[in-house]
Amino acid sequence: MSLNLPFDRVELRDGTAVSTLTPSEYMALPLSQRIRAVIERRVRFFAGRTELAGDAALDAMRKLHAAA
Amino acid sequence: MASLYALRTMSTLYERLGGEAAVEAAVVRFYEKVMADSSLAPFFDGLDIDKQIQKQIAFMTMAFGGPNGYSGRDLRTAHAGLVKRGLADAHFDAVAAHLGSTLDELGVAPAMRDEAITLVAGTRSDVLCR
Fold first, then answer.
1. Are A66 and B17 a contacting pair at CB < 8 A?
2. Whole-prediction pTM
3. Using beta carbons and an 8 Å cutoff, which residues of B are at the interface with A?
4. A10, A26, A57, B2: least surrounded by Cβ within 10 Å?
């Protein structure tokens, strides 16, 4: 599923391992897991090679769902 | 019928704010405000972060009129240790203020924001174990 979001890649760090997720895969994670990753600064949002601020990414996700 | 109407209205608000994604943004924003507050951050030392997040998810979902209930039970037990460490009215007021500004930033209507704050205010005596 393609989402209209200002980022196309999410990097999730767990210890030394880094997983790359699509926005859809990220949104499919349990809410508590997503929140903990953001609070612990273990998640980064990218549009191509450009990193997006976490709060901007969260707002974009919220607005997308609010508009749905 | 009034309660059914209210439920429908609340559900619409939750969805209008972005549902689960709104709760995600709210919990993160609220947590960051609280942790950036030097008067409050020490109280979070040693807390179970997963339990804390689950409580905040439940509360924010309730505050947005979402589907998951927030029991608010056992607040005295949950906060007894913090009261022994000095948790007082000033801290309670600061948390309520951070909650209010979080809801404002997410575009919650003032009436709904005030309702959530009123609900929080009603827990003061339990949270502060009086």
1. yes
2. 0.80
3. 15-25, 27-29, 31-32, 49-50, 53-54, 56-57, 106
4. B2
